[in-house]
Amino acid sequence: MDVLKHKCFLEELLFWTIKYEFPQKMVTFLLNMLPDQDYKIAFTKTFVQHYAFIMKTLKKSHESDTMSNRIVHISVQLFSNEELARQVTEECQLLDIMVTVLLYMMESCLIKSELQDEENSLHVVVNCGEALLKNNTYWPLVSDFINILSHQSVAKKFLEDHGLLVTWMNFVSFFQGMNLNKRELNEHVEFESQTYYAAFAAELEACAQPMWGLLSHCKVRETQEYTRNVVRYCLEALQDWFDAINFVDEPAPNQVTFHLPLHRYFAMFLSKAVKCQELDLDTILPDQEMLMKLMIHPLQIQASLSEIHSNMWVRNGLQIKGQAMTYVQSHFCNSMIDPDIYLLQVCASRLDPDYFISSVFERFKVVDLLTMASQHQNTVLDSEHERSMLEGALTFLVLLLSLRLHLGMTDDEILRAEMVAQLCMNDRTHSSLLDLIPENPNPKSGIIPGSLSFESVLSAVADFKAPVFEPGGSMQQGMYTPKAEVWDKEFDPVMVILRTVYRRDVQSAMDRYTAFLKQSSKFPGNPWPPYKKRTPLHPSYKGLVKLLHCKTLHIVLFTLLYKILMDHQNLSEHVLCMVLYLIELGLENSPEQESDEEESAGGQERCHDSWFPGSNLVSNMRHFINYVRVRVPETAPEVKREPPASTSSDSLTSSQSSRRKSLQRENSGTAQVFSLVAERRKKFQEIINRNSSEANQVVRPKTSMKWSAPGATPQLTTAILEVKESILSLLIKLHHKLSGKQNSYYPPWLDDVDVLIHPEIPRYSHGDGMTAVERILLKAAIQSRLNKRIIEEICRKVTPPVPPKKISSAEKKTLDKEERRQKARERQQKLLAEFASRQKSFMETAMDVESPDADIAMEIATSEQQVSEAIYDCVICGQSGPSTEDRPTGLVVLLQASSVLGQCRNSTEPKKLPTTEEEQIYPWDTCAALHDVRLTTLQRYFKDSSCLQAVSIGWEGGVYVQTCGHTLHIDCHKSYMESLRNDQVLQGFSVDKGEFTCPLCRQFANSVLPCYPGNNVERSLWQSHSNKCLRDLVQEVEDLQEQLGTFPVSISSETNLSKEMESVMKDIKSTTQKKYTDYSKSPGSPDNDFLFMYSVARTNLELELVHRGGNLCSGGASTAGKRSCLNQLFHVLAMHMRLYSIDSAYNPWRKLTQLMQDKNSELISEELPEVPVLYRDVSSLLLIQILTMPQPLHKEHFTCIIKVLFTLLYTQALAALSVKCSAEDRMAWKESGALKKNTSGAEKSWEVLLGHVVSELSKGKINEEGESEELTVVNPDSVECYLQQFCLPFLRITSLLQHHLFGGDLPSCQEDEEFTVLASCLGLLPSFQSSHQFTSASCLDWPVPAFDMISQWCSELASFADRHPDQVKALLIQEPKWDLPRLLQLPENYNTIFQYYHRKTCTVCTKVPKDPAVCLVCGTFVCLKGLCCKQQSYCECVLHSQNCGAGTGIFLLINASVIIIIRGHRFCLWGSVYLDAHGEEDRDLRRGKPLYICKERYKVLEQQWVSHTFDHINKRWGPHYNGL
């Protein structure tokens, strides 16, 4: 680090640029001159010269993030050019400078390592708590280093330079053993440190990334020398490290570090040497002693992983679990766990197998468990952890012996295996797969996800599941799911275990595998993980197979099989599964050299202990073991037995017993006592001596074996067990045990010899433990004739002896299953009976409290075929009973303002979202706009109060009422609301606004609609048609309306019910904005309320019609059946409407049913006339009539009202028709009508009536104003069709109303029959005629002579026409045909929208908004969260949602491709309707993929909008505080 000497202006300039932490303008200035080649070279050299100074400034900087970005902005332009980088490397020692600068940088934050030998350790590591590491301050320098190493010529220099390699290994050793974890044994740590993030990031970026960079240049044979260099200096650094931490052969207990970069450098370069450079592995491996040291720490990590998952580190807090997960996580695994396991595989292939196996069990602390005795004492492990640690140890061995990632698999095979493992855990989206497959971290390495191989492998192993919308409302992305043959042949549980971050993913993979087998009926039960054949081992690693053929492993397997058979504690199915897996691995990879014959001959001599004669698993499987001497606690059951006279015994037990070794050596009759720990020590000593003394002379030292596990040693005594089993016999007995039957195993080859020749039988590939045992026995028989013979012999012997302990659990299961089922059935019956009786007594008490007549009500309810709704269940208190005046019951309802109806247009073609300046949407053809215009026109010419009864409002801002169908007592509801108010939990709704969720189904609601007492029971009494004539009924209706002043008792006296009705009416009013309820010229006039109330009924009927698809052809009950609340709503509205009396002089009913005498009085009066009857909206009149009648309404009166109104409607249709057609047609009709006028049935002939209308209207100035648009064809059929279409909307609304008031299903029909079917359903058609000669006029039933009535109505128009001739026609022609409401049509490609809108300026503030959005209902462009467009603290989106949708807004956020919904004061993210080619959303456009419309999703969005179900289906709502 020399002192800087400046010789030119450029150097001075750069110095100050660095000093001031790279001001952006200076950076731009310096970079702008780079195209000049001389400047570029000079600048690069100056930059390198100041490198150390840059590092110092960076360390001191407070804004290190910004500064880092600017440094890299410069350096990436200088160092990415290979020629330039090479030149600077040669001329300016760039590599030396970089490595030295990095080394200096890290030296500032070193601390003493506490690994192994805390006091005397000389090793220093980086402190992960320092800002330098925590904030990743080093990354610009490391990234420069990685960048220059990507150039072949520079990397070559680095790999040839021994001095540099030494320095670099020195740098890497700073990270070796950092972030040491010490297991907390007493109490939980007070403070959980989060330093592990820094540690993992540092190892990945500062050590692993440069390593991958270097490895990418060691691909060919010519580069062998480089590998030798790296390995050599790496081993030297490792040796120094072992010396520095005083490491001999035992790792310190309860410590683990996940960071061993030196080990990983060593491992990865070895792997590369064998895979790409054809190096002989043994020439670069160190001696045995070094290998023994090398394996200890990686093995310690594997054991610690198992401890962490066994909850032994729970007192260290969650962060230790976080480390265990990060270690195997996809971005880290191939720089962490993969090299570690590979290194252990290399060590295992070169070390003595017995030593290795016993080391593994000792590291996993389960040595004491591996005894034949039924009881043991584990001095280093609590018994609750024993089982999971044993599972961990065996699983680790299976991983070690099965994985071939670095031992012979090609890159494509690896990619395929990784992909299959990820897909088996869960279905994955394309982007998450890209993320989860560990990629080679160096970008220039060649195999990159997204490359061709990735796509081709993906299509080979997976099927694409298109994105669907689930009924729960959660939107699925497009997913990839494994093909059936992948589950069948390639599912590899070992790979899944290696790659799972969460243990639950292993279970998830197994569940999916089980489901696949059930579905494809390959296996019905609970399968075990399948055994998968492995890629052959690379010859360099053949030694790995020795692990499977060593006595130690065989003794462990034998012991575990025996323990499982005898039901010792702490063993699980998983243990058995792994034991069988290891046996099968051993059979698959058996050394071929030994033949059966010589084995059987030489067996006796070689068997110097009575465990096993040799090391080959195939022959050891059949070796019988008679007696075993075990050390057991004195309390154990084995102690009581007398040993037989001649004991050939042996024992597998804890280390104390090893003192007998010398004794038993002479006495070959008794067995040598076996102890794993002692065995390991002995081998270790052997290896050390072999290394130190002459080469092959084996010295067996008399080491004192005083070592024992820490902790008090229990009193042990020796007992002798009679075993008389071999591995084969244990397997056969296990088969009996698993099947729960005696003699369940029968050798398959006795029936079918082919089994031995073609062992690959599909029936063995999937199945449970029994299948696994059968498969293993078959393989054993195939490999050796002796085994085959012995298996047959064992099977011939009669029944297997029953284990001394209780019945095995499997047998017990089968015995108990039936018994348990029986018991469960009885229990269930008892419970149900108890429930029923409790319910009954509860009902009785509830009834007594409620009302004495309840029994009668119940009887009526049951006797009727029309199920009465008179009895309600309260979902809060659980009581049932009728709704009464004092204690009313109410329906849980959600009131919401809606403008959906107003969005109907009269064209069937949906409007498109504008994506160019030319396409603009004008709202004047919407239903709301046209109704608005009509009302305004009427108000100009007619009396206000009469106008407000001539139309309905609520097309915009109408109140829609929906219910989930659950009822509750209103007093219960009040206390429920009180409890919600006191509940401090964050709710997604506002209790102060009366919002709540239904206590039963949790559906969102905001009010309670009181149920009117008792009236529903009377429904059926009015079903019959009466025989009264129409005149009488008309009179009765009039009389009933006269009673308006006399209220029913309930209303005049203030009861709870009437109070509730008033309060719900207030709720309904306050649901929508004032502008949607005030239409009268005199504000606050009662006419407003009157109009609003019957319009609420209209809105709800119209919306139900829309939900049914715009017509009633499908028939059936109300769409929602029990969910309809129209009946209750009508009662509330009726009660309030009848508070307003209509002056009888103005009662429209009279105008419809009586001929008025005095026609001239109106003309004299000064005020505006009333609205002519022909201009009135018939559906509105219907609702006014119905709602102002006393309830309950009689069916005959209802029918009477319909008949009268139908005559008016029909006349309106004729009038509209007459205005629409040409003058000649009018004349023709006038004449033909006049001719037929006196025939019978003239009142029911449209021709006559039309002629009459034409002649009446021609009296005024109606048809003088130029010709109107004409009906093209005027033949009788088209006229009939026009009339029916004109009347249909009214008939539909009326039928719905009848259905809700009186019950009865709606008939279903074809579209062309809809008119006739509805007419007869409503009682307009006296006798149903066949449809071919049917005319709509036959439905007419005139209360007074038709021609007089028509003349009276037309005369009103004539007198109006005299004053305002221009308006007559416009008001006559109503547009009854509306298409269903639709959202705007969106373009196929998202880019079309994005390009147009993301640069579009806001109309209010003329700036380009930061978050542009567009309304999908009307296409308005708005600023999301834009402060510029705020009005009275409301941001633009919220404001627009109120104006356009009365509080509901659907916006597409242009820069995020997502849709947000605003509903009142809440909002939610709905999701996206644009997906990429793989069916995935791209929220915030982060991945930048082309997006295409997903029509299904858009349909669902539209469906939710039309059906007003946003609140119910979308779950994640939050308040927007008007800030959107």
What does this structure look like?
The two termini are 56 Å apart. About 10% of the residues have low confidence. A six-stranded antiparallel beta sheet has the order 19-18-20-21-22-25. The protein has 60 helices and 25 strands. A hairpin with a 6-residue loop joins β11 and β12. By secondary structure, it is an alpha+beta fold. It is elongated and about 130 Å long. α14 (261-276) crosses α18 and α35 (769-783) crosses α36.
* Helix segment tally: 60
Average pLDDT works out at 81
How would you characterize the largest beta sheet?
Answer: 6 strands, antiparallel
The 3D shape can be described as elongated
Q: Tell me the helix content.
A: 40-55%
Please list the strands of the largest sheet in the order they lie side by side: 19-18-20-21-22-25
Structural class based on helices, strands and sheet pairing: alpha+beta
Strand content: 5-15%
Query: What would you report as the Rg, rounded to the nearest angstrom?
Result: 45 Å
| Count of individual beta strands | 25
Q: CA-to-CA gap between the ends?
A: 56 Å
Poorly predicted regions are 443-447, 594-608, 640-672, 694-713, 800-815, 845-869, 1016-1024, 1045-1052, 1159-1164, 1264-1273
